[in-house]
Amino acid sequence: MENVLLLGLSAPAGDDPFGDPLLRALSVPGASGVRLVVSATPSVLSRAGATASVASHPVAHALRRMASLADGLVIAAPESDAVPPASLRTLLDWLSWPADSSPLTGKPVAVMTTTRDAGTSTDPYCEVERMLFSAGATVIGPRTVVGRADRALRGTEDGRVSIDDPGVAVRSLFHLHRTAAEVRRGAGAPPAGGDRPWLL
């Protein structure tokens, strides 16, 4: 397998202002054999309502289909010992249940967290990682923590996002490549060549 396709997911900007920018910064094309496709956060997750949390929701079905087409996933979340935002929990629930058809089962998943602070939480695993473990995903840890994300991530004039902190860039890219290496190691990984029909 030469090309590995990773799907990047995060909570809406109102719940996590740095998740999507981090993923977009890492999705810049390169000759590395790893392609990170960042999915727009489904707008239904930003709205309160019982129907958004139902796994049979049409957007949930599309999201599960996208995850099944990807070789692995990258989940961005706020760095915290507490439960993740409701929107991200719903997104992960959509991917996790029903468990017998979850696209996360056995799939390599990297977790990257962001914070305005310099430090990290004291817990070795965040709640997002616990949810992924419960869903049967292969979590490629430990998570990468992007501290001082408001300084490390910078928007450019052409609408792109750059990572201004070299340490953050190296740790994040290394995590992507460890995830890709796990995909390549997995005997059951689908081939990643060619374009795939993204649904969102």
Automatic annotation (TrEMBL):
MF-aspect GO terms: oxidoreductase activity
Residues forming the NADPH-dependent FMN reductase-like domain are 54-142
| Signal peptide as annotated in the record | none
Check the record and name the SUPFAM superfamilies matching this protein.
Flavoproteins (SSF52218)
Specify one Pfam family: FMN_red
> Which protein, by its recorded name, is this?
NADPH-dependent FMN reductase-like domain-containing protein
What's the source species for this entry? Answer: Streptomyces albireticuli
